[in-house]
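User: For documentation purposes, I need each entry recorded in a consistent format: the amino acid sequence on its own, followed directly by the corresponding structure tokens. There are two entries in this batch. Please keep commentary to a minimum and don't merge the entries.

Assistant: Recorded as requested. Entry 1:
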Amino acid sequence: MQWSLENFELEREDLHQDLMGIDLNLTKCRVGDFACGWGNTSLSLMLELQCRECIGVDQFEKNINLDVPSIQDVEEQFEKIKNIAIKNTNSFENSRGINDIHYLLESERFPTFQIGNIVTGNNLPSELDFIYCKKLLQNILEGGYSNPKQGDEGVKLAIKNIANAVKQQGHICLVEPAGTNFMAYLEQAGLELIRCCRIQRSEIIGTKRNLLYKAQYLIYHYLKA
């Protein structure tokens, strides 16, 4: 969707909740945001973790009806975000988000994006210290993303490729709808459980939250031992 500060700050709130209890110092680390979409989470990860690098990965097969962007759409949008931050540098009415984005620009850090397929493993970054995925596995399980491998097989391949992309002693955080428990899949990949917890929150719709309904999620935090 077209970037807005309101939507970005809501997504950052969600990410902050997802990362609570994950005690990591990632200031000098490389972070991957797999299935990053429009990249709001990638930007939020840089701000919340203060990491030196965040790579947003997605297939970026543009679909207007499903609000799926091309990589060019995302890169153009991030140029606009940079311009918004620069234009409002001296404003005393800046929000926390604008000020933080400007801080990233001053420190010459900003998310980058690349086309990659998490199921096939094509063109994924490697040697990452931390990988974050949100609502990825459930979509693969249900046949989303037009991948040749879906269902159980697709999930197993995706987890294997995620595990291959993170370095030894690296961490993985996955956020999935609570209807399916993916712990068995993750343990089959040889990953070590740190914690799994259930949360509930109001979903984001545009620039607001749906206060009438709260969705339940499971947060999986694993270590590649």
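Entry 2:
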Amino acid sequence: MNIANVRVDFLGHAGFLFSFRGKNFAIDPYHVSDFVPKVDVILITHGHSDHCSIRDVQKLSKHGTVVLCPVDCQSALLKVKGINMEVVEVGDAIDFGFAKVECVHAYTTSNPRHAKQEGWLGYLAKMGSTIFYFAGDTDYIPEMQHLTGYGKKENNFVVFLPVAGGVVMDVKSAVDVAARLNPTLAIPMSYGSGVYGTERDAQLFVEMCKQNGINAQMLTKI
């Protein structure tokens, strides 16, 4: 789909591809198809293999591709030749020219597999007039409060929220988060790969969002 001149494609599970001003970047690519192009930037949220997939980083990267990741991914990503890996943490901000990226908190309070002390990440990315919030593997957390203002501004504000209950926030919690953040558009993620989350979870998220006056849409995997 196109959002204010930014092309957004679903890579499956929790992965997305953004194309803007002739540049491509991917977030958490996992089991991507052969149709996905090489990218200039890859953002990794944390070290679990369905988010930090070495095979997919190798598949999408080219010489000089920048890979942002938290410290727990560092040793695994050293296996990928030719990339420029940058270890980042919450609060870091990187300006790529075509996109400005900020690292934000992502953790679960209901599941110890994503503990806050791990320092794992979500990302805010601004491209043109649009701010994209990629929540990562998270529950609703207090740190999301500072994002509530984005939905009240003139800028487009698009949020990507997990809908896989038991591991991260479930559908109802994701709808509650979307209501709090008041985005221009809410897009479900973390489903359909067989790891956790189903297409029905994503469909239910969209249905419940619309019942609550929230614009939401599923994307088709490329």
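Summary note for entry 2:
The chain has a mean pLDDT of 94.
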